[in-house]
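Good day; I would like, with your permission, to put a structural problem before you. I would ask you to consider whether the tokens describe a fold that such a sequence might reasonably adopt. The full record is reproduced below for your convenience:
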Amino acid sequence: MKLQHMTAFLVAVSIVIFGYTLLGRSALPGYWSLQTKKFNLEEKVASLETEVLEQRKKVNLLLNKTTHSKSYLEQIARNEYGFIGKKESLLLLQ
């Protein structure tokens, strides 16, 4: 009879330890939380890599002397800085 009680006690203790290990703060919930953070960070990295590629394209356009790069520079000068062309006039209406 004592052997059965001892076996039952050890099984119960093992179940409690296993449950605590599995469901404790740093076990499965912590793992799931880290998986979610990893997924979010991977999305952010992909977004930033896309932004880096776009910025590199802009830098290449600004450094090159092609007709496309000249039109890109002109577009930036007009849109961002309000410049006008050599043969253009600025008309202000009030």
About this structure: Residues 2-81 form one domain. The first helix runs from residue 2 to 23. The chain has a mean pLDDT of 84. Residues 33 and 51 are 27 Å apart (CA to CA).
